[in-house]
Specification:
Layout (H helix, E strand, L loop, with lengths): L1 E6 L7 H4 L5 H7 L6 E7 L5 H10 L2 E8 L2 E9 L16 E2 L11 E9 L2 E9 L10 H16 L3 E7 L20 H4 L1 E3 L11 E2 L9 E2 L2 E5 L6 E6 L1 H5 L22 E6 L1
Parallel strand pairs: 1-2, 7-8
Antiparallel strand pairs: 1-14, 2-4, 3-4, 5-6, 6-7, 8-12, 9-12, 10-11, 13-14
Amino acid sequence: MDIREWNIGMAATIPSNKGYELQPWIINEITKGEPDCIVLTEFAVSKGIDYFFETLEKKDYHWFISATTKQNGILLALKRSTFDFSCTFDYKKSTVKNTEALEKGGLPDFLEVVVGWEEKLLSIIGTRIRVDLDEGNNNSWRGEFASLDSYLASKENTVICVGDFNAFWPGIWKNKSKNHTLPSTSDKYFLYTPSFNEGEWWSYVNPKVTEYGGKCQLDHLITNISGRELKVNYDWSFIEERPEYKSIKAEDKYKPSGLPDHAILKATVS
């Protein structure tokens, strides 16, 4: 199974305000190679949305969104030929869930779709913790993680959760005394992030952070799947390929508003 996750940087833009729109090249980029699962975070309902849906349908995807105007959401697209959707589209079953599935309190951006995969039920979850990294000590940030932690820890079926967690976990994932984000989840799940400080190891550059030049790993994959090889990497190649970024490089702190400012997280479950 090939998985792609990308924070596309719309930041809940209002199209009529600054003319932001969903750029066609973004959906063309993320569908290269036609991965089995696509998750877009910071997805805002905007101009250009029709082209996104048309492209996904032409490439044989079912798509799901949780987003409204002026609010970030999730777009989740799943390959029809890879998954079994007989359960998904049973209207008597709760198989497509948004933040209402979580405990009330701080709520992250969240979208879950339950599908069949290898004769088992698989929950594919796209998420984004809404609070910025440098605000990590406030109650909202903790509340969002607490809601997500409780939900993931309670799941009985197979789960793949991928997204922008606004958390940097080098070396503390399994350390409960230091992991104040997803401590219960870390007991049952495995965290997959590209190797720290090797190659293009960062998924975002925070202008407000000085350590490591602001480079941090915010995009991760969490799963309770075991006994399989799972590989992840960050892909910044779109920066060099797109004229919208001009002389900007992946390591630069400031990138154009309304365009992706994170690397694409690419994962393969063998």
